[in-house]
Amino acid sequence: MRIISKKILADIQGTKITSIKIEAPSIAKKAKPGQFVVLMVTEQGERIPLTVVDADINSGVITLIFQEAGFTTKILGKLKEGDSLFALAGPLGHPTEIKKYGKVVLVGGGVGIAEIYPVAKALKLAGNNVITILGARTKDLLILENELKNASSQIYIATDDGSYGRKAFTTDILKEELGKGGVDLVYAVGPIPMMKRVSQVTAGFNVKTLVSLNALMVDATGMCGCCRVTVSGQTKFSCVDGPEFDAHGVDWAELEKRNKVYLDKEKHICNLNKI
Amino acid sequence: MKKEPVKVKEKEAALRSKNFDEVVLGYTEQEALFEASRCIQCKNPACSSGCPVGIDIKKFIFHITQKDYKSAYFTIKEKNDFPSICGRVCPAEYQCRKACVFTKKGSPFASDNAINIHFLERFVGDYGIKNKLEAPLEKEGKFSKFKVAVVGSGPAGLCCAGELARRGIKVYMFESLHDLGGVLRYGIPPFRLPRNILNFEIDYLKNLGVESTPNFIVGKTKTLDELFFEGYSSIFLGLGAGVPSFLGINNENLCNIYSANEFLTRVNLMSGFKFPEYHTPVNIGKHILIIGGGNTAMDAARAALRLQKMNNIAPSTTIIYRRTKVEMPARRLEIEHAKQEGVDFQFLIQPKEFISDEAGFVKKLVCIKCQLGEPDSSGRKRPVPIQGSDFEIDCDVAVIAVGLKANQILINVTPQLKVDKYSDVVVDAGTMETSINGVFAGGDIVGGEGTVIEAMGMAKRASKSIIEYLGTM
């Protein structure tokens, strides 16, 4: 559970994205693309889920990438190399189903790019034609561009302000790609509004679409139901039934609201601790 | 002259409901002696038959009357490793006390006059803790070459680990959460089971040589096959019934609708009642509804009421139950405590749907009134909704406490492990062995939700079988 290296990937306009490598041999041995861990920074801490971005069996190290959003990710960002987490468990959730689909379009937005990276690598290895669309607010917030370039046969970049790649939304590029035809699967991870738009776009083209949801969790082993989401009218637990679901069935409005349930308390604890 | 039962001292309701400190103070030595002296030492005592692990109750009570608390302690320990826990959480009024000769025949639970066996057990258990009494341990024996994996550190796992370790077997306990104790830690609030008692009982296992690994999810971090491959001779599964059931009504996923497991895990395991010193938040409303009538519902209600008081919110916590008080499965003591503390009870009401505010938070619960009909398969009278009796209740936090199902994580990746139609693990009733050779199970993962002591009873049987199994190796 010791952090062996730490790298700031982006830090501008109040947005900070960090990559940490952690010693976790038994998790590294088992983690597959699409799976996550649950961690606690301190003994007083919350349990939060983070996607395993990379797992190296030989060195027994896993890589996590997170954006400082709430109190827990902020104190996680304060840990230094050599520090240890209080708790770390996993790997959790179902892995992504890796097989030869044919032509797959991956859409990553913001820190969600980190989550599509292991999936892109595995899909390419399985012989898929991987087309990747990355979106960020601005150039300096774009992460893992080179890594994903290597894991894709084609890559497109969209920034909100046009500082890099195209001034567009990821969904604009996605639409063009779908228009060319032959897309067998779309896989998207990013902010809820982005995933929702992706889902709307692909529904129009009738293309199967998977999203990895970032619901709030506590135990992350199916015990509490904090992460429940409605998919195709049925209640599912993101932790044990997901985290990936058919995008076209997800009740996005419900997820968006449920993810804001502790906003007041987040603000309060951040203010108290002046972070 | 007939002696009156000794009432146990409790903290005053108005004061205790502002914190999470223990409510029941337990017997003093004098009180324990007096209560023990009420036991008439029946020639053929029925009390032990009411105990799922068959503690020799008559004998341990006799030892108390002789002030031989050490012998009393070891008499209990022969059958139950955790008297301080069971003395606090056992539903004695449905078990040993119901079987006591002083309970009126045919009564659904123990009469007030029945010997307060659980309080005596607690007295003896706490005496053992205070005086650091330790049961004899076989350090080097014919079993010391074996190692056994215990999966889950709840009541069943703890009990099995203790039993095996005392025979000199090297026990490794795996727990998926970051702290040990299972439901004793995440489910039962500290005002019923103080953490120092729980920690002591767990430390006792460590002293016996039990090694524990938290943050380890068997089925995910490692499979059963991998554990066997690593040299474990046998595996005990005490996985628990950890998956919450919901009502299946409209709008049940609105914000601030919790399962009891989530609510209690936030409060107990994560110490959410100490937010922001502890970082896990829990939302507290002006009108909290708890749906259900079991011990979990009582725990959730009493925790919710405390959080309201601690946050200077006028207390308004209501238990909604579709039958009446008589049919409530909760311990009578819990129901009384909840009432004393100010929890409101609404009986013969069935939830119909939740209503949302603009931001997606729960605002109201629509209910329908019920009347009792013919008994159902559980033997309790069935609640029958009265058509057209719908009404609304204000509600800004709701906690659903309507039961639990088996956790599927390990079961899903272990197809050779036979389960029944409820997805509970199937075992041989005598040996507690599962469909996999050398894998045993006990507690709520076998036969669904039960009590702490029932789980321990099964674990005890399983541990005996494990020892026999090792003997054949």
Polypeptide structure, described:
The complex is a heterodimer of chains A (275) and B (473). Chain A is an alpha/beta fold and 275 residues long. Chain A has nine helices and 15 strands. Chain A has two domains: 3-92, Translation factors (Elongation Factor Tu (Ef-tu), domain 3, Beta Barrel); 103-258, Nucleotide-binding domain of ferredoxin-NADP reductase (FNR) module (Rossmann fold), CATH 3.40.50.80. Chain A has helices at 25-30, 71-78, 112-125, 145-150, 170-179, 192-205, 238-241, 252-258, 263-272, and strands at 3-12, 15-23, 36-40, 48-56, 61-67, 87-92, 103-109, 129-136, 154-159, 166-167, 185-189, 209-212, 228-231, 234-237, 244-246. In chain A, strands 10-9-8-7-11-12-15 form a seven-stranded mixed sheet, sandwiched between helices. Chain A has a six-stranded antiparallel sheet with strand order 1-2-5-4-3-6, with helices on both faces. In chain A, strands 13-14 form a two-stranded antiparallel ribbon. In chain A, helix 5 packs parallel to helix 6. Chain A is globular and about 50 Å long. Chain A starts with a strand and ends with a helix. Chain B folds into three domains: 13-130, Fumarate Reductase Iron-sulfur Protein, Chain B, domain 2; 147-242 and 406-471, FAD/NAD(P)-binding domain (3-Layer(bba) Sandwich); 244-404, 3-Layer(bba) Sandwich (FAD/NAD(P)-binding domain). In chain B, strand 1 (147-151), helix 8 and strand 2 form a beta-alpha-beta unit.
